[in-house]
Prior knowledge:
The structure holds 2 protein chains of 2 kinds.
Chain A: H1 2-8, H2 24-45, H3 47-55, H4 77-82, E1 96-102, E2 110-115, H5 116-132, E3 140-143, H6 151-163, E4 166-168, H7 175-185, E5 189-192, H8 194-206, E6 218-221, H9 228-238, E7 241-248, E8 253-259, E9 266-268, E10 273-278, E11 292-298, E12 309-315, E13 317-318, E14 330-331, E15 336-337, E16 342-344, E17 347-349, H10 351-362, E18 368-375, E19 378-386, H11 396-414, E20 419-423, E21 430-431, E22 434-435, E23 438-440
Parallel strand pairs in A: 3-4, 3-5, 5-6, 6-7, 18-23, 19-20
Antiparallel strand pairs in A: 1-2, 7-8, 8-9, 9-14, 10-11, 11-12, 12-15, 13-14, 16-17, 18-19, 21-22
Chain B: E1 2-11, H1 18-26, E2 31-38, E3 42-49, H2 52-61, E4 66-77, H3 82-88, E5 97-102, E6 110-117, H4 120-129, H5 137-141
Antiparallel strand pairs in B: 1-3, 1-4, 2-3, 4-6, 5-6
Amino acid sequence: MMNRILETCAADCHPVSVPDYTPADELRALQLKRLQAVVTRAWQHVKLFRSRMDELGLTPDDVRSLEDIVKLPFTQKSDLRDNYPFGLFASPMKDVVRLHASSGTTGKPIVVAYTQEDVDVWTSVLVRCLAGCGLHRGDIIQVAYGYGLFTGGLGAHYGAEGLGATVVPASGGHADRQIMLMKDFGVTAMCCTPTYFLHLIDRAAELGVDMKDLPLRAGVFGAEPWTDAMRQRIEEMSSIEAFDIFGLSEIIGPGVGCECRRHNGLHIFEDHFYPEIVDPETGEPLPEGVEGELVLTTLSKQAMPMIRYRTHDMTRILPGQCACGRTLRRIDRIGRRSDDMLIIRGVNVFPSQVETALLAVDGVLPHFQIILTRSQGLDQMEVQVEVTPQMFNDKIGAMQELHDKLQHSLDRVLGIRVRVALVEAHTIERSEGKAKRVIDRRTS
Amino acid sequence: MKIQQISLFAENKPGHISAPARLLAKEGIDIRALYLADTQEYGILRLIVADWQKAAGILEAAGFIVKVTEVLAVEVPDRPGGLADVLGALEGSDINIEYMYAFPYVRGDQAILIFRFNDPDAAMERLQAAGINLVASEELLKK
C-alpha cells in the first residue's frame, strides 16, 4: 500500500494520511467492524439509544453488514438538548478529558464530550484535512476561529500542531491585529470562516497591505456554507488556494470532511464517520449521487457516540473516485439545509430560539422578523419586534428597559450579539397572515 | 380632576407622527397638548385631546398601539419659584414624577403643567391639601 501512496501522494504527504488511501474493500471491512463496536457501546451505555433499539426489537447483533445501518434509529439535535448536559455520554466522567458546547434551540447549549482517544482521533482527522490541503511541517498556520466552547478554534489548533506546523492561535476578531500577525510572522495558511477572511482582505487593503504580497498560500475555510463565487473572489483577491472544510460539534467538530487539492467535493474521513444520504421527509436512504440530507454515524467515538445523526445539511455523495487517489468518498459542497437553521458568524441560530427568547421577556410572543445583513464581511442580525399593547408603556424609561430585557434575553439564548429594534404594530409584512420570519440580505 | 392622556408608540422615521395627526384631524378631534419623548430609534407621542375615548378608538382602529394614562393638570403661578412651590408640596412623600410637560395655554398669571405621577390619586390629594389648583378636564379642554 505504501507504494501506491507514494505514487499518488505528493512528496509532502504526511504519514497520518495513509488511511485516506485504504483500498475500498479494506475500508468497508474496517467500517463494519467499527460500526458493530460503536453500536454495542452505545447500546450498553446510552439509555436513550438502548430504549430506541428495544422499541424496534433490535440488538447490536442485528448489525451484520454496513447496509444494516438503515435499521438503526436516527439521532436528532433535540436528543442532545433533551438529555442536557451529560445524558448521552457513553464514558464515565473520569474518562472525559474535554467538553465543548454549541448553541441549542432553547437557550441551553448542546454539550459534546471527548475522551483522550476522541481528541486524538479529532486531531488526526484535522491533520489529514490540512495535509490534504498541501500543508506540512514548516507552514505557519494562523487559527482565527474562536477559541473556547466552540469547536472551531481548538479543533484547528490541535490539527495544525499535530501536523507539525507552527500555530498562531489568534482566535477570532481584532482584524488589524490578525493582519499584523499574518504580515509580521509570515503566515502561510489561515483557518477561519470564509466571510471573515473576505473581511480581512478588505481591511488589509484599507491598511495598505496587499494580501497578494504576503507569503500566505492557503486558506482552510468552514463553519458556514459558502459558494464557488466566494471562493473565486477570495482566490483572486489574495492569490491563495481556498479549501472548504466541513464538520459539526455533534459528530466531532471541524474535520469530518475536507476538500483535497482537486477541489471536487469534500472527502469524508470514512474510517471514523459513516455518511448516508436520506430523504429529509421520509428518512429513507437515497442512492449515490442523489441529493438529500446527510446523516452521519461516528464509528470510533468513545465519550459520545452518535448513531445516524440527522445533520439537516443537504448534499449528495459524489459517484466515483477522486483523481487525487484517495479512496474516501466525497460529498458535494453544502449549500442549503433541510430545516430553518441560520448560520450567523459560524454560530447556529434557529428562528425558534428567537421566539423562545422573546417569549421569556413578558410571556407574550410579539410579531418579529429577523433581518440578516453583512457588513465588513461579518454577518449582522437584527431582530425587529412589533410593539404589542402589553409591551407598550408611556414612559421612555420603561420602553428602554423592555428593549434591554429583549436584548439580554436574545444574547443569552443565541449566544451572539444581535440588534433589537422596536417597531410599530402591523409594520412587519405578512403573507397569508403569517409574518415572514427571516429576511436574508447577505450576499455572497 | 384627573385628565386622560393618550400615548402612541412611533418609530423615529419621517412621517411617523403625521399619520396619527392626520387621522385625528379628519375626525375633527382637536389636539390640545402634545409632547414627544424620543430616543434614537423610536418615540412616544403623548396627546391631550378634546374627546379621548373617540380619539383612542380611531387610533386603535387604524392599528396604532394606544395607551391611556391618567395625568394631572396643575396650575403653577407664572413667577420665579412657582414650580418650586408646587413641587414642595410633594416633598417627604413617595410620590414620584414620571414626566411632566407644559400645557400650551396660560390662564392669566397661571401656567398649566401636565404631570404624570406614579400615584395620581395620592398626588391629587396632597396638592389639593396644599391649596394648589388642579384644572378639571372640562375646563382644560374648552377653548
